[in-house]
């Protein structure tokens, strides 16, 4: 009885009359594999001309991911705050630190 209005007829969307490919020529792409420290595997694709990066952010957890499954990139310290001495130690070797310290002491003593 209640007949529809033929809403299903011709419902195909975007099909060109000639069946043309939707996206035109696809640029050739390469798929790279990356693993993050949490073991997530992601496979971003890159244009062939593009340089595949050494590190890719894991789309699942955001950790840096690398192409070597057994040797994932070291996680940069996510510590929100590091003490000043932490930064100093990070930047200077012990030896350099002593040189600086001696210079500072010498200045304090007025010998420079
Ligand atoms: Zn991950």
UniProtKB/TrEMBL annotation:
<dbReference type="InterPro" id="IPR038638">
    <property type="entry name" value="RbpA_sf"/>
</dbReference>
<keyword id="KW-0479">Metal-binding</keyword>
<dbReference type="GO" id="GO:0008270">
    <property type="term" value="F:zinc ion binding"/>
</dbReference>
<keyword id="KW-0805">Transcription regulation</keyword>
<keyword id="KW-0862">Zinc</keyword>
<feature type="compositionally biased region" description="Low complexity">
    <location>
        <begin position="10"/>
        <end position="19"/>
    </location>
</feature>
<dbReference type="InterPro" id="IPR025182">
    <property type="entry name" value="RNApol-bd_RbpA"/>
</dbReference>
<feature type="binding site">
    <location>
        <position position="40"/>
    </location>
    <ligand>
        <name>Zn(2+)</name>
    </ligand>
</feature>
<feature type="binding site">
    <location>
        <position position="61"/>
    </location>
    <ligand>
        <name>Zn(2+)</name>
    </ligand>
</feature>
<comment type="similarity">
    <text>Belongs to the RNA polymerase-binding protein RbpA family.</text>
</comment>
<protein>
    <recommendedName>
        <fullName>RNA polymerase-binding protein RbpA</fullName>
    </recommendedName>
</protein>
<dbReference type="Pfam" id="PF13397">
    <property type="entry name" value="RbpA"/>
</dbReference>
<keyword id="KW-0804">Transcription</keyword>
<comment type="subunit">
    <text>Forms a complex with the RNAP catalytic core and with free principal sigma factors.</text>
</comment>
<dbReference type="GO" id="GO:0045893">
    <property type="term" value="P:positive regulation of DNA-templated transcription"/>
</dbReference>
<feature type="region of interest" description="Disordered">
    <location>
        <begin position="1"/>
        <end position="24"/>
    </location>
</feature>
<feature type="binding site">
    <location>
        <position position="58"/>
    </location>
    <ligand>
        <name>Zn(2+)</name>
    </ligand>
</feature>
<feature type="binding site">
    <location>
        <position position="36"/>
    </location>
    <ligand>
        <name>Zn(2+)</name>
    </ligand>
</feature>
<comment type="function">
    <text>Binds to RNA polymerase (RNAP), stimulating transcription from principal, but not alternative sigma factor promoters.</text>
</comment>
<dbReference type="InterPro" id="IPR018527">
    <property type="entry name" value="Rubredoxin_Fe_BS"/>
</dbReference>
<dbReference type="GO" id="GO:0001000">
    <property type="term" value="F:bacterial-type RNA polymerase core enzyme binding"/>
</dbReference>
């Amino acid at each position: 009885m209640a007949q529809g209005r033929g809403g299903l007829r011709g419902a195909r969307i975007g099909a060109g009359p000639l069946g043309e490919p939707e996206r035109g020529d696809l640029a050739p792409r390469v798929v790279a594999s990356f693993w993050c420290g949490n073991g997530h595997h992601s496979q971003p694709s890159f244009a062939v001309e593009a340089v595949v990066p050494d590190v890719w952010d894991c789309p699942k957890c955001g950790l840096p991911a690398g192409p070597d499954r057994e040797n994932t990139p070291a996680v940069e310290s996510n510590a929100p705050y590091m003490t000043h001495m932490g930064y100093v130690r990070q930047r200077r070797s012990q030896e350099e630190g002593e040189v600086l310290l001696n210079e500072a002491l010498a200045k304090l003593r007025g010998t420079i």
